[in-house]
What does this fold into?
Amino acid sequence: MRSTDAVRLGFLVWDVARLWRVALDRALKPLDVTRSQYSVIAFLARRDGMTQSALASDLELTKVAVGGLLERMEAVGLVERRADGADARVRRVYLTRKGMRITQKIRELAEPIETRMLSPVSDDDLAATIRSLALIKGKFVEFDQPGAVDAHKLPRTMRRRGRKTVP
It folds into this structure.
């Protein structure tokens, strides 16, 4: 039963994320901000000055794709790229004043959506959901670490019982 629930959970998380993106796209349309630009702005709002490579990695895009996206965002004054002080080959990306103002407007437009979306969920259920998703995310991050055990390569009996192959 648990593996069936995991599949259901995966599809539910995916579908909720998709619907959330659709609602945000609709809300952000007046700002003339694309979903890709919103993603860059969201990452930079949390970690301004990220390297272009780190941004590409976090966005799961190629460096070329991120470079083109940043070029377009620079052209409209949302971000600026600067050489790193320690290594001139490294480019760091920063929100401009205009980018920071857009970040605030995005938050103002997103808040009513999030409030409405979460309205049927109790504070306790929301806290439990956040804790559970953080634990699941942690396991995925573990799987991405060098030397991590690929759960799909475990013998069926170990996958089912959730035992580890290493102490």
Remarks:
- Residues 2-28 form the longest helix (27 residues).
- Residues 122-162 form one domain.
- Confidence is low (pLDDT under 50) at residues 154-167.
